[in-house]
Amino acid sequence: MSELHMVGSAPNAARRSRAIRREGGMVNGPFIERYFGELIRIIRMIPRDGVDVAVELLLAARERGSTVYVMGNGGSASTATHLACDLAKYTIVDDKKRFRVVSLTDNVPLVSAWTNDNGFGSIFVEQLRPWLGAGDVLIGLSVHGGSGTGAAGPWSQNLVQAMQLARERGAKVIGIAGFDGGAMRELADVCVVVPADSETLGTPLVESFHVVLHHLLCAALRQRIEAADA
Length: 230
Hints:
Order of helices and strands: HHHEHEHHEEEHEHEH
Helix content: 55-70%
Structural class: alpha/beta
CATH class of the largest domain: Alpha Beta
Radius of gyration: 21 Å
């Protein structure tokens, strides 16, 4: 689209918006209010103590020089990448110790190679086998936490396999899930669950809050790092 066309279309869009409002209000108003209402309801129910424990686990890993690994599927894969970025960069304070962070979702050739040879369930656990040690931290993000099934079988079993390895190796596990937390709730040392209870809006609401929680974790970590030895 040309710059001229883009500029010229703005007044037309504004006129259409005003016309819609004159004709009886927002077309999508009820749905927008419903969505925001669910956000308000859910945020009051998210357990604060789980977030606090997650912050402490991550701070302890940083202090001992352990590595934090992050993983997720689909939309949660993009959140995993974003979280790894912010843990590595946003938490830097002057010349103080930094987080060692690896996103397990980003090496597309490696992920596709493991999928091709060993199946999608292997993509995280096989990346971790050479590296994961006692004291490291594995963060998993998943809307359903490894519960539920689709056309390809049970959901998010690649996260479950990786968490099982972490438990065997003595690593700490942080889950960030939705609905009832699924298998992740049982495997994690702490699992922060977004208590959505409606599939109609559940996935977008849970994924929205996962981004909120990841930013909360990183902001809280930076605040603690800034305050240390201040």
